[in-house]
Amino acid sequence: FAPYLGGGILAMLAMMLLGIPVYVCATASVPVAVAMIGAGVSPGAALVFLMTGPATNAAALATVWKVMGRRTALIYLGTVAISALASGMLLDYVFQVGGVTLKDERVTMLPNWLKLVSAVVLLAVLGWALVRPWLHKHKEMPVEDQMPTHALEVRGMTCSNCAGIVQRTLLECPGVASADVDLDAATATVAGRDLDLAALCAAVAALGFEAKPVGGNDQA
């Protein structure tokens, strides 16, 4: 449907209706926006999608509505929507006034050696990100040092990046010694002492996901 949208306020509203209810990772939304621009959507409309997609989703709005109230949820939604529309209109205006035209050209701007070094660094970072949880998970602990574990049900995760963000957030919470997130099962297993499950759920909810303790699955 992208070729039929083009630009203007209607295209931006369509992008907003698409981006607000559905959660799209900030990383994943960029190639989607580029594809939309290539299909004929204006840069301003694509920007609206980039801003509303990662910032809002149905689960986050429901959580804010439940925890902070209707007024706060409406203010949050209105702020995101107005900011996205204003930014999209401003970007299209800049393109129009400046006479900027989009061209399908691929320009090589970096030397080969820099691209090679960057690729090696990226692979090293990705490799460490994959190995680190495995090392932490398989680290032996004495029986007397083992801590109680608690299971949380986490809804709204759509990719491994989401699971990684949830895991890092849980590890930063007070008292958490380890955290393991299962994307397929939509659960997070947290180990630690004197854990505040409500605080853990609130930390996950602040990311835009729904979290609650799994009843009867807490293990001492």
UniProtKB/TrEMBL annotation:
It is a multi-pass membrane protein. It is found in: Cell membrane. The chain crosses the membrane at residues 7-24, 30-52, 73-93, 113-131. Its main location: membrane. The keyword Metal-binding applies. CDD domains: HMA. Keywords: Cell membrane, Membrane, Metal-binding, Transmembrane, Transmembrane helix. GO terms for molecular function: metal ion binding. InterPro entries: DUF318, Heavy-metal-associated_CS, HMA_dom, HMA_dom_sf, UPF0718. Residues 148-212 form the HMA domain. GO terms for cellular component: plasma membrane. Belongs to the UPF0718 family. This is HMA domain-containing protein. The lineage of its organism: unclassified sequences, metagenomes, ecological metagenomes.
